Amino acid sequence: MNNASFRLWLFFLFLSLRAKTTAKQSQRLVVTKAVISPPNGPLKKAGAKSEEDKLLADADSSSKGMFTNVDPAIRTIIPEANGRTVVKMVYVVLESQYQSSLSAAVKQINATNKNVCVQVSGYLLEELRNEDNLNQFKTDVENANVFIGSLIFIEELAEKIVDIVAPLRDSLDACVIFPSMPAVMRLNKLGTFSMAQLGQSKSAIASFMRKKKESGGFEEGMLKLVRTLPKVLKYLPSDKAADARNFMNSLQYWLGGSSENLENFLLMISKAYVPELAGVDVGEVAEPVTFPDIGIWHPMAPTMFEDVKEYLNWYDTRKDIKFKKDAPVIGVVLQRSHLVTGDAGHYDGMVMDLEARGAKVVPVFAGGLDFSVPVDRFFFDPITKGALVDTVLSLTGFALVGGPARQDHPKAIESLKKLDVPYMVTVPLSFQTTEEWKDSTLGLHPVQVALQVALPELDGGLEPIIFSGRDSKSGKSHALEDRSSQIADRAIKWASLRRKKNAQKNLAITVFSFPPDKGNVGTAAYLNVFGSIFRVLQDLKKRGYNIGNCPDNEMDLINSVLNDKEAQFQSPDLNVEYRMPVTEYKKLCDYETELHENWGPPPGNLNTDGQNMLVYGKKFGNVFIGVQPTFGYEGDPMRLLFSKSASPHHGFAAYYTYIEKIFKADAVLHFGTHGSLEFMPGKQVGMSGVCYPDLLIGSTPNIYYYAANNPSEATIAKRRSYANTISYLTPPAENAGLYKGLKELKELIASYQTLKDSGRGPSIVNTIITTAITCNLDKDIKELPSADADAAEFEQEFRDLIVGKVYGKIMEIESRLLPCGLHVVGCPPSAEEAVATLVNIAGIDREEDGIIGMPQLLAQAIGEDIENIYRRNDAGELEYVQMLQDITFASRDCVGSFVKNAADPTGRVAANALGQLGKMFGDASIALPWGDALKGTKFEKVDNGKMRTLFDYLRFCLEQVVKDNELGSLAEALDGRYVLPGPGGDPIRNPKVLPTGKNIHALDPQAIPTGAAVASAKVVVDRLIERQRVENNGVYPESIALVLWGTDNIKTYGESLAQVMLMVGVNPVPDALGRVNKLELIPLEELGRPRIDVVVNCSGVFRDLFVNQMNLLDRAVKLAAEQDEPPEMNFVRKHALEQAEELGLSVREAATRIFSNASGSYSSNVNLAVENSSWNDESQLQDMYLNRKSFAFNSDSPGSGMEIKREIFESSLSKVDVTFQNLDSSEISLTDVSHYFDSDPTKLVAGVRKDGKMPASFIADTTTANAQVRSLSETMRLDSRTKLLNPKWYEGMLASGYEGTREIQKRLNNTLGWSATSGQVDNWVYEDANNVYMADPEMQKRLMETNPNSFRKMVANFLEANGRGYWETSEENIERLRQLYMEVEDKIEGVE
Q1: Residue 1057, burial from CB neighbour count under 10 angstroms (0-12, 13-18, 19+)
Q2: What is the pLDDT of residue 368?
Q3: What span, in angstroms and rounded, lies between the C-alpha atoms of 214 and 1247?
Q4: In sequence order, which residues have a C-beta less than 8 Å from that of residue 955 and are 6 or more positions away?
Q5: Which of the 8 DSSP states describes residue 190?
Q6: What mean pLDDT is reported for the chain?
Q7: Omega of the bond leading into 603 within 30 degrees of 0 (cis)
Q8: pLDDT band at 520 (very low <50, low <70, confident <90, very high)
Q9: N or C: which terminus of the chain carries fewer CB neighbours within 10 A?
Q10: Within 13 Å and on the Cβ side, how many CA atoms surround 1375?
Q11: Torsion angle (degrees, nearest 10) of CA 1211, 1215, 1219, 1221
Q12: Where is the Magnesium chelatase subunit H N-terminal domain positioned along the sequence (predicted)?
């Protein structure tokens, strides 16, 4: 048993003792404790079968595709009765450590007891997913005397147990349930004792509880109660007390866990409650043998220690082993249950591995769920009071404080910060055998990922490496030699960072070059990489690191790595730091032969001169700045078509071999979002020793600067490359502003509003119309008349509507947020930059914090509601368009006045200036934080109290921005210290992302979608379906193809996840612990429309992080497909029936709709093909998409991982009417990253539809409070106007020099990608971009000087767009581009 859940059980017990709490109330209590904004919806009554349950009962019940296929019969023990009474027992446990101890107890009874013997059947909880096992379990319980359950915390399986056991409870002699879900706990029955009856307020136990609660020592009192109550109850005369005593004794026996304790437990229960044993002598039943609640254990020690001094005295006088004086000390955290049940072989192996490498160990344990107690007590030096250990290595797999159901992360973080050493949390295999894990492409069981990987990450846990396996027959744990060796090496490496002097440490800084081109060296999202590296090096120098003869400016640093800026990338143009002879490579790289299948023998053709492997980069003292090789197959169209990704090539392997074994790095710093290491093939989570990320990173501690707004990919880096991910700030958002004709339009509209009632009104409208058409706004405003129309002939109302629509559109452009420039690590924002960010933080209502957003407060000040203003603004009502703009600019003025007080003389926001802000808060007589910004305006009567609350929050947010600890956290990590964890996400939606410099984590994947996310999703789904219905002559779309992204669902707490469920007409429902793993069908009469079919493309990152949610989605679609409803009202069923007949499948299998890549592979490769121009025609791109994205998830066989289902995928796409994606963050739009077009199937759908019809394509934009559903072409135009064509954006990028030019080229390349996949880019976008970047000789010069390689790629992009038919232009433009290309090519080649 996992005693980490003990206190949770006591919590349930306390509730039942204190009052007669109903089951429903108990469930609500737990839900509110455990889930963030749970979705509303009734919880299913215990024993009631949902529609889904009934349908699943008819599904294939074979074991194929389950996570474990172990036959529970191996635990069955049938004795030879020989005239003895046979007691039949059945048990279900979460994990297997009790199996061998229970089996030994049963065998001992059967071998020695003269009057009684035990027949036992045992099940691991996970095995009950299998229908055959479930039926056998039911049969066993029907014939049993006693049922025992422990740690039944997976609701869907708990319900199955309750459904079987509850009807049989009265016929069972005894039912003993230890910590489990509330519904299971209520099955407890020992004579008169049951959880339902423990609410008697006069009971002795309840009285004891009340005293402990009132005294304030509740938790300690509970633990003391368990230790002492059996002795107290002995002297109570009543039968009830005797039964309660038996239950508490049972708990003591169970917690004791040894075969002796369990033998006495079984005999006690049998003697007391099995009628056939009345008056039968079963022998002496000993009292429970108890063990320390916390202590120190060692496999070689004669006893458990409860004092660290005693342990150290024993340890330091051991004769079997000697340690160096400066040996690192590893603190190991263990579960007591494994120790007391004799299932500690895996612990023995880990301790021995550490000691064999020269490390001392302090292995501590806890019997409760709070492992921070032994950490606090035993990991500090009793003399110096400083940290005794150099690294903490948890072998529990659980959060530091809390078991599978409830955690206390703040308490855990407090303990770990005080200790201040690296915290590694490894994982034991609990639900799979070793063989099943090895054979699985998924790797670790998804429930374990959620409980034992995701939750420890919230504590700051690192490196979720599998350290132990489970024997399929005995159930015993055993060390996995290669895994425990890897863990030991890595733990000691982290420890050595604490002990080594900075001047002696070797640091490998790794930069990326993606796509492979010399102009792309130093690629990272939102980051000025070389400017940041330069700051890092200067900071390291101050801290005593040897950075040698490092350049004294950023440009010289770039040049030293690039070496000859004019050289060609494909030749050895980058600086070659090391030439590794092939013989050396083969000797040092243990896995090089594994790469031959994909790449042949070394040296291959990449990163080599034909004789040696080339390691590109430059060394400065003890710091190596290296260029990570690329995937290697980007330019090979055939390899891009492969459904599974290739292994790393020899050059890639040689790079990491150099870092670990030649340069001997003490740590590697991967610089920016993101590289290729974490996306190499291997298991999704819980990698083995043959997974490439594990092989490549070796034993080197990995520190990784990752963008704060990308927690999903940061989590992949954390889990697959064992990275300590440190967040960096994205560039502060600014409003896009207006320029050229758009600016002129705003001035014309201002004139019209002043003069519209005069005779000049119609002529101004005429000018507005022609200017709007010149700006191509006629594509977005369908009401806009043609240029030859005369506004004098229009009614005043229609003229106002035209002006209102144009005004609304240009202000939509003006207000659009965009990150200007690139972030430099450790550089705080300017006051102006802070204003735009804070305005948008202020724009959101935050009900949980009691904060009303500024737009609503200002709207209320003039007697309006902001939702009404949004709605009428969207309709183009001029009065309300102006009203919204007045609110927008008033918000900016208020925040601008506020921030002005925090600016230092240079215009930066300074930490010391923040003290001044405090003077503006508190007493109402003190000056308003927003100064005089609203004085004399129509908003002057705003509610000052609510505004003060909002501005107090804004002050907190501003302080977080300024507190940036990006350089400090890096120094902490390199010193072998604990880096504080923090959430990743959108700083505007969730300012808790700030300050940056935190060890990024995602969220509890079982907590989404939240209730708030479901509500937001409904708004978008309703608008999407209604817009398509209106534009399609009143006909509903039958099928929608959409994409699920990992980061988006983290930022929005599952909004797009909820969208899918709502489309098919299903609601997500939380279980009794708040985990969202249940479904409820929405009746058609409530839905008010047909169920819309879906084809869901999950990104590879989403697949890795949210396997449980993919399971939920697949169940939702299949639930809808199997409803007996009219086809015209259920398109899911309609299509599934058609496909079942067409493909010869069951309806359930034909309803497969949840797709992604093969496990260990990512993306469709369409982005790689476009970025490298390595594609012939669009059909080749579509083949890539179909080959790589046609792997399906099946909730009926979840252990199978992703299975190829090309026919169903193609058939489902052929029925799609709409393609759809979400934008949820102002920082990332359609052309900022290649992922969006890489996952777009718009033209592919047209290609597979029988009628060849192009689907409608929409983008939901929830980046502001006023959510919008736009067409893809509208969104592309908006994106182009605010970024690629916007002087404010491109001048900000050019100010970043080399890397800014690359960012401009990337936007152009991604625009080309959208043309290739969707055809939704207007010709004028390319024409205007050509005028901005290519037709201006001064602009040409700037681009050429800053980054000639990227400039060459831009010229090539324009020529490619024309050559592929995406851009029609004059021959003059094409000739200029050809000439430009030759000129820049000659310059790069060094031709004069």
Answers
A1: buried
A2: 78
A3: 71
A4: 914, 917, 918, 921, 929
A5: B
A6: 85
A7: yes
A8: low
A9: C
A10: 3
A11: -60
A12: 88-248
| 528-565 residue pLDDT tens | 888 999 999 999 999 999 999 998 888 888 888 876 44
C-alpha–C-alpha distance, residues 713 and 716, integer Å: 5
Residue 1170 to residue 1177: CA distance in whole angstroms: 11
Predicted confidence (pLDDT) per residue in 417-472, tens digit:
999 999 999 999 887 888 888 888 888 888 788 888 988 999 999 999 999 988 87
Q: At what angle do helices 1298-1317 and 529-542 cross, to 10 degrees?
A: 140
| Per-residue confidence (pLDDT) for residue 914, from 0 to 100 | 52
Three-state SS at 1091: strand
Percentage of the residues of the chain whose pLDDT score is greater than 90: 55
pTM summary value:
0.84
The beta strands (E) that lie in 769-904 are given as 817-819
- In Å, how far are 9, 77, 836, 853, 874 from 889, measured between CA atoms? 55, 77, 11, 14, 18
> Is residue 1005 within 8 Å of 1021, Cβ to Cβ?
no
911 within 8 A of 965, measured Cβ to Cβ: no
pLDDT at residue 1295 above 70? yes
Among 324-328, 1073-1077, 1323-1327, the least confident range: 1073-1077
Task: Give the pairing of strands 1039-1044 and 1218-1223.
Answer: parallel
Our CA angle for 1276, 1173, 1182, nearest 5°, is 70
929 Cβ contact list (under 8 Å, min separation 6): 898, 917, 920, 921, 947, 948, 951, 952, 954, 955
- The residue type of 751 is S
Residue type, 740: K
CB 389, CB 421: distance < 8 Å:
yes
In 10 A of CB 744, how many CB atoms? 17
Q: What is the DSSP string of 662-709?
A: IS--SEEEEESS--SGGGSSS-SBS--TTSHHHHHHTT--EEEEEETT
Note the pLDDT tens digit of each residue in 1153-1201: 999 988 878 888 888 888 888 888 899 999 989 999 999 998 888 777 7
pLDDT attached to residue 575: 86
User: In order of start, what are the domains of the chain with their CATH numbers?
Assistant: 3-277 (no CATH), 294-499 (3.40.50.2300), 508-725 (no CATH), 738-815 (no CATH), 831-963 (no CATH), 1020-1275 (no CATH), 1283-1392 (no CATH)
- Beta partners for residue 706, in sequence order: 727
Alpha-carbon torsion 1124, 1126, 1129, 1134, what sign? positive
Burial bucket for residue 1096 (CB in 10 Å: 0-12, 13-18, 19+): buried
DSSP state of 606: S
Which residues lie closer than 8 Å to 106 by C-beta, 6 or more apart? 77, 79, 89, 118, 120, 266
Average pLDDT over residues 655-680: 93
End-to-end CA distance of the chain: 77
Q: Identify the bridge partners of residue 668 per DSSP, sorted by sequence position.
A: 508, 702
Residue 669's nearest CA partner among 493, 505, 827, 507 is 507
pLDDT at 211: 42
In order, the DSSP letters of 616-650 are EEEEETTEEEEE----S-TT-HHHHT-SSPPPPPH
Res. 891 pLDDT band, cuts 50 70 90: very high
Identity (one letter) of the amino acid at 267? L
Q: Which secondary structure element, helix H or strand E, spans residue 310, and what is its range?
A: helix 308-316
* Residue 737 dihedral angles phi and psi, to the nearest 5°: 75, -175
Higher pLDDT, 407 or 453: 453
Q: Which amino acid is at 603?
A: P
* The pLDDT of residue 998: 93
